[in-house]
Amino acid sequence: MEAMKMKLLVAVVVMVMLVMVQIVDAADAPAPSPTSDATVFVPTALASVAALAFGLLF
Question: What keywords are assigned to this protein (predicted)?
Answer without folding.
Answer: Glycoprotein, GPI-anchor, Hydroxylation, Lipoprotein, Membrane, Proteoglycan, Signal, Transmembrane, Transmembrane helix
